[in-house]
Design goal:
The protein has 216 residues and is of the alpha+beta class. 47% of the residues lie in helices and 15% in strands. It has helices at 2-15, 71-75, 88-98, 102-113, 133-138, 147-164, 169-178, 180-186, 193-210, and strands spanning 27-31, 36-39, 41-45, 48-53, 56-61, 65-70. α7 crosses α8. The longest helix is centred in the C-terminal third of the chain and has 18 residues, at 147-164.
């Protein structure tokens, strides 16, 4: 039970990060998993550390917080190595730009298009991250089949959904698949088998790749 609670806590911290803090001073929390979160403050209570950031707070186990680095010092650190696999450099760049876990982006692309940049669904969702034309236009995508533009816009949209649902990944994924209007209508994950399977598949895949980094 403790391990499950810890996994959920770290899982939430990994996907909920905000870029471009509006405060004059911000720091970066460096987690054992390798994730760096842009924070505006933090407070320790026993074995739990509460991280404050634009849009809300997340809690992590104290043992999983390696350090808190000043923003100016963090800026001088080298970037993480690009991810391996198809379009790894583009995924890595989008993850850094928008503050979204690149493993999450990778798993989402795998489910959406199986890394086919020319994929088109029966609902006319297109490209690697299966953007519908309206979403592509919202994020100023000129060529929806261009991998760089598609991944950047899809990641930006995913970040906006994560912020909208205050870091609740299942709701953000449900909205990505079925649309925010459906999530609002049903007050949660819509009762559509496709959407429910979609959410389960991505969250399970992400949990399986992050579980080895969880404290024992």
């Amino acid at each position: 039970m403790r391990r499950l609670t810890l996994l959920i806590t770290i899982f939430a911290a990994m996907i909920f990060s905000a870029a471009g803090a509006s405060t004059a001073r911000a720091d970066y929390a460096v987690l054992r998993s390798g994730l760096r979160l842009h924070i505006t403050g933090y407070e320790r209570s026993g074995e739990v550390v509460r991280l404050s950031m634009d849009g809300g707070t997340v809690e992590v186990q104290a043992s999983d917080l390696l350090s808190v680095e000043p923003e100016d010092q963090f800026a001088a650190l080298p970037a993480l190595a690009p991810a391996n696999g198809p379009f790894g450099n583009l995924i890595h760049a989008a993850a850094l730009k928008h503050g979204v876990n690149e493993k999450l982006i990778t798993h989402l692309i795998a489910v959406e298009s199986n890394f086919n940049p020319r994929a088109v669904s029966r609902k006319q969702a297109q490209g690697l991250m299966q953007l519908i034309p309206e979403t592509a236009a919202r994020y100023s995508v000129a060529n929806i089949f261009d991998p760089a533009q598609n991944i950047d816009a899809g990641t930006h949209y995913l970040k906006d959904l994560l912020e909208r649902y205050r870091g609740n990944l299942p709701l953000a994924l449900a909205a990505y698949n079925a649309g925010p209007d459906m999530v609002a209508r049903y007050g949660g994950i819509p009762p559509f088998p496709e959407t429910q399977k979609y959410v389960r598949k991505i969250t399970a895949s992400l949990a399986s790749t992050t579980a080895p980094t969880i404290g024992k």
